[in-house]
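for the writeup, i need someone to sanity check this before i put it in the appendix. the sequnce is what the collaborator sent (i think, or maybe the updated version? ugh). structure was predicted straight from it, no edits. if anything looks off just tell me and ill rerun, i have time this weekend
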Amino acid sequence: DITALKPGRSCRAALLTSSAKMIAEVVVLAEAQRHWLLMPRACLAAALATLNRYLIMDDVTLADRTEARTLLAIQGPRTLEILRNAPMLPAMDYSVTGEAGALLMVPTQETATVRTKLLALGAVAVNWEAVNVHRVEAGVPWWGVDMDETTLLSETGLERQLASFTKGCYVGQEIVARMDTYGSASRKLMQLLCEGEAVPVTGDAIVKDGEEIGRITSAVFSPSLNKPVALGYVKRPHYEAGNSAAVRRDGRAIAATLATLARI
């Protein structure tokens, strides 16, 4: 509900087609006279075209500010402590890894200075491989990997995080509401806790009693769980947490248990 945001506050949102397929996953930051829409770079062109199409009577100008701002993410149990010691850095609540987290949007020319400040306060720089492991462990889907423009919002399990069920009409609302009421999504994105050491690969089949019921989208080996963890779409009626399944990998079956995604 974007109009309910007060300056300095943020929320997660989704931009949808009329059939409730995803155009973009968005974080919205409100300011007094403007809103920042933060989204994966791959979504930008389609999002701008869609928003411009609906600007009919509104006194609004859209502009691409990708090069002018940089996003830094702070994640983990010390997030609030670090931010308390850096009050000059406005932050938005947002989890990349399923833990406590925040996003900082800074002018691009100040990125190095802010990053140095965060490191001095005790933050530790990590690479994308580490972030990927944490977010798959937590069941956090990524755009372009686990969801894209062919995905229905209700298939991702994120409809309660990215859509409002109280604010009234929006593009795609009828489909989202119907699926929420009747549970009619033909597939759902699920987490799979796998046995053994073999890590599934994107595209591997998820099977149950010899029948293919889905496909893997992401997979990592989790050091904390000491087992492979994956994300993948599972067909109805199999997408219930606790159900058993298997993943076909190089002619063998990897036993797995289904789990729901993080409610971040």
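Residues 3 and 78 are 31 Å apart (CA to CA). The mean pLDDT is 93.
thx in advance!!
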